[in-house]
Amino acid sequence: MGNGSKTPKNGRNAPTIADVAERAGVGIGTVSRVINNSPAVRPETRAKVQAVMEELGYVPNPHARRIAGGRSYTVSVLLPFVGTEFYLRLLEGIEAELGEQRYDLALFPLLSKQRLERFLSSSALAYHTDGLIVASYDLAERFPGGRLPTDRPVVMVDARSEAYDSAYLDNALGGRLAAEHLLALGGPVFAVQIEEELDRAFASTVFSARIGGFREALAQAGVPLPEDHVFRTRLSAEGGQIALQRFLELQRPPLNVFAAADVVALGVVEAAERSGLEVGREVRVLGFDGQPWTATRGLSTLEQPVETMGRAAARMLIERLQGTKGPPRHERFEPRLVVRASTQIGS
Amino acid sequence: MGNGSKTPKNGRNAPTIADVAERAGVGIGTVSRVINNSPAVRPETRAKVQAVMEELGYVPNPHARRIAGGRSYTVSVLLPFVGTEFYLRLLEGIEAELGEQRYDLALFPLLSKQRLERFLSSSALAYHTDGLIVASYDLAERFPGGRLPTDRPVVMVDARSEAYDSAYLDNALGGRLAAEHLLALGGPVFAVQIEEELDRAFASTVFSARIGGFREALAQAGVPLPEDHVFRTRLSAEGGQIALQRFLELQRPPLNVFAAADVVALGVVEAAERSGLEVGREVRVLGFDGQPWTATRGLSTLEQPVETMGRAAARMLIERLQGTKGPPRHERFEPRLVVRASTQIGS
DNA sequence: CCTGCGGTGGGAAACGGTTCGAAGACGCCC
DNA sequence: GGGCGTCTTCGAACCGTTTCCCACCGCAGG
What residue stretch is flagged as signal peptide (chains A, B) (predicted)? Predict the structure, then answer.
């Protein structure tokens, strides 16, 4: 096996920093500096090196980076193990921001508490990462001292934490906006609440915050929400279908329904259509999340800036990784009411 | 900051192989051989080294292993992004087997096709692992040539693939067993089928195989299954609730329901209880999966040896990693009927 | 013309492991 | 007693990066 002939193609042995250096006629240190955006490189040199990297398809080996530099340029993202589009969008945002800073991410689905603890303590995993982004759960509060047993920086997203930086949505505000909107339409108001035990391992509070804000705004307007106007279900479209059935037993159309999540709102719409009721007139439905498909289904919703929140979280983490000190910072985001056919008479 | 005093505790700087070697009075090569179960170590030496490793809390750095040895002793597990207990159990099995061989795993939730392709091609991730275990989807068939674009070994679990080793359950057999059992009870038979688009990114075939076997066995017994005796829903307990509602519109109790998944069967049970019907007599319910909680809920089910399948998949992968050649091997597993109160008259 | 200095670039050392050639210890045989 | 395997063990070399020290360059100032 003479290794005289280079095989820099996407084959078994990838090109190394030495290959790049040689081909570009510079030293390995210079290549490293280019990779790490060090300012101490002349623009022409940088361009030349980058061209060679491109040509050779060079990608720095993260394991080597980790071992040499102490950092892996990788962050772990801990996310609930539920299949919703929300997390897809959130990751989109996180990844966009991390990518610009040449960071990678490793996903860690939160399947069980046991697994989480193994992840955090036993260091044997592939998750030897520089920092953590935790989505949707305030994991910190379930550990003694209110802090995760790790010395790496942590940022919360879609959740607020006292102990760590966080980027979160004002869910209660969303509930209040929902109340205002539905009240303006006139007619009785109902709500679909969602069980917090998302995946029977961890509990989130977003849904109760949404319904809480809703209830509060209604009360302030002098229209309290009766208990039987609230239906609780697990997170599924079918739960929304059942909810509307119940509501129709109590009340003849027209009626207004606020669902704490778009998926559930979709079920309400499905059930209405199946019952031959006109959505937007006889049954008005307002969801929450702003999932992409709500536009084509004509579903009114409270849109949250998911990608933006993801980016914000990633940015905060990177700043911490670069040494920023100081008390936890919190970025608050607001949902935006998007009115579509499902809460508008006719088209 | 004199570093004269060692801090081998679980602090910032973990002990290295050199620390262990020094403390044990051996060379680093010997320590490495102990770590890797090389036979060329005297038992007493091995014991001594292991004692020191224990004492120091030494864990080999996977990045260093990867860089030095070419392997990372880590395998990726690709799994659908749905929050079911099935995957928890599957991972339990996989992890048990891998752990015995000193391998770690990195989870990769299959959120979208786009993300999968990035994972497989762009090598920049932390997922520089030695092999892949793919759960539930025959991902291979969606790539040109019917093979994943990777040269690392691949094993399928809970799915069968022509191109790769696989450990899978005979779902059709489960359906047939279900049919036999329900027929023996007497009375009309219904089925709840589940949408294959588990998480709207990838499609699985397990549910249609289950219902397929069910239908086939019924037909053979001369009791074909009418179309309106099959209700389709997404995977959720509420879907089961709605299904029973529909069935009760067509048929007065007693009736028998086979649900293609335990979660859905649970919904059927819930709906029956809410309607004041006696489960096991007026409504008989049979699930599929053998989730741990079925025991306490008295739900009859087709139990699958999930952990065992996971172990089998991991074992096959490790063998491949150790150089085993040859055509794809397939391990077939069979579900086992567990009869409980939900398909038994009285207690 | 010499000196000093900021801006660049080169490459040795280090990171924490694996691997492999070499060497020591020991027992056996002639 | 010397020759020769076998069984263990040692530690240097290496994996692909980062980091740091030093050298070099060109230019302004004395």
Answer: none
